[in-house]
Amino acid sequence: MPERNLNFDEIIDRKNTNCLKYDFAKRRGMPEDVLPLWVADMDFKTSSYVEDELVRRSREAIFGYSEVQSEYYETVAEWMRIQHHWETDERWLIKTPGVVFALAMAVKAYTKKGDKVLIQQPVYYPFSEVIEDNERVVVSNDLYLGEDNRYHIDYEDFERKIQEHGIKLFLLCSPHNPVGRVWSREELIKIGDICLKYGVIVVSDEIHNDFVFQGQHHVFPSLKKEYEDISIVCTSPSKTFNLASMMISNIFIPNRTLKQKFRKQVDAAGISQLGVLGLVASEAAYKYGNEWYQAMLAYVKSNIDYVEEYVRTNLKNVRMITTEGTYLVWLDFRDTSIDADELDRRIIHEAKLWLDSGKVFGDVGKGFQRINVACPRKILTEALERIRAIV
Question: How many CB atoms sit inside 10 A of residue 202's CB?
Fold first, then answer.
């Protein structure tokens, strides 16, 4: 049966579906009529193979406790092998209801209250939240924007922060959200070797690993055998196949001791089996979804190229940071002379857009906006026209 859900130009009305993106503007303090391009899910139907497997399983009409067999692991492992050239072991895998949950479990497993945890701002805001909400302290090795229009790592500051603050846990975002970097082998090895030197555990959030448009994604522990002993790798089909509400992530922890500590925190949180439909969707996506994935990826890439050309041509003093990976574009408004608070006001109340303000990604994000481009071109064009009208 051929893949059916390949029309990414189709505009699907998601309103009145209890959709976080479209139905909760007022509850989140936004005007009800905003156009939402903030939260990182896609306005595309997932693969029809996933759709059909979910319908098939639902027709069984019994939703008791469920687990997966080895075939599930073999399917996930094959995806990692083919897409990312990483050989995994079934014994490394722990399934969790989301990557953010896994980040929180890692903070609890590998640090104690009052400890300091290293991140690299501007970065996905739950990184800070899971640290602070668990009574730990955020330390940031801020990324800096280079003349090549890409963000880079200050390695001297990275090592200094580890030394000065007694860092034992580092949350790595790879590919990086929101700045769109796909870290090179050399960059990852530099920070990996520093972490090895000081015994720092690396939690590598690789949820956007299937969205790479420039360069190559490197699974962190694949770079050196020694990295396996300090690594927790967080993956999920949720971004790749638009399955966020299915609450399924695949966490790989090669080191047995680190895995046991992580497992203990998951158990303490009361998590055992996950929802059966998430398990079904994950396996079906990785087993049958490649045609849909490749077509979706090409469409998203064309949207990124479109935004780049539109910004260059139509948005004076706005700069689009080079997007090497993810479907989230990072726009720099600092040269417009509009301060960060006024920019937010204009975006929300004049342009009637719901984007992610750069402020939520850390102080170094002020003056930026993150826009989700995984939507039909017509919607994206409308959003860009609204931005043009207010700058």
Answer: 23
Alpha-helix residue ranges (DSSP H) falling in the chain: 20-23, 48-58, 70-84, 99-110, 126-132, 155-165, 185-198, 237-240, 256-268, 276-288, 290-314, 340-345, 377-390
Which H or E run includes 287?
A: helix 276-288
* C-alpha separations of 138 from 37, 102, 120, 249 in Å: 28, 17, 10, 24
HSE at residue 387, side-chain half, CA atoms within 13 A, is: 30
pLDDT in tens, 25-79: 999 999 999 999 999 999 999 999 999 999 999 999 999 999 999 999 999 999 9
Q: How is residue 119 written in tokens?
A: 């991140």
- Write down the pTM of the prediction: 0.97
Q: Give, in order, the Cα–Cα distances in Å from 384 to each of 9, 13, 340, 352.
A: 17, 20, 19, 11
- Please check whether residue 169 is in contact with residue 111, taking contact to mean a CB–CB distance below 8 angstroms: yes
Q: Which helix (H) or strand (E) holds 110?
A: helix 99-110
Question: What's the Rg (C-alpha) of the chain?
Answer: 21
What are the beta bridge partners of residue 231?
202
Two tokens at 156?
């001297």
Which domains are delineated in the chain?
20-47+290-390 (3.90.1150.10), 62-288 (3.40.640.10)
Phi/psi of residue 141, each to 5°? -90, 85
CB atoms closer than 10 angstroms to residue 366: 18
Question: Are 36 and 79 contacting, i.e. CB atoms less than 8 angstroms apart?
Answer: no
pLDDT over threshold 90, residue 213:
yes
- Whether 273 and 72 have beta carbons less than 8 Å apart is answered as no
Q: Rounded to whole angstroms, how far apart are CA atoms 142 and 164?
A: 15
| CB hemisphere CA count around 386 (13 angstroms) | 22
Rounded distance, CA 293 to CA 289, Å?
Answer: 6
Structure tokens at 347: 């975006």
Q: Distance between CA atoms of 300 and 324, rounded to whole angstroms?
A: 12
Helix (H, G, I), strand (E, B) or coil at 104: helix
Rounded to 10°, the helix 155-165/185-198 angle is 20
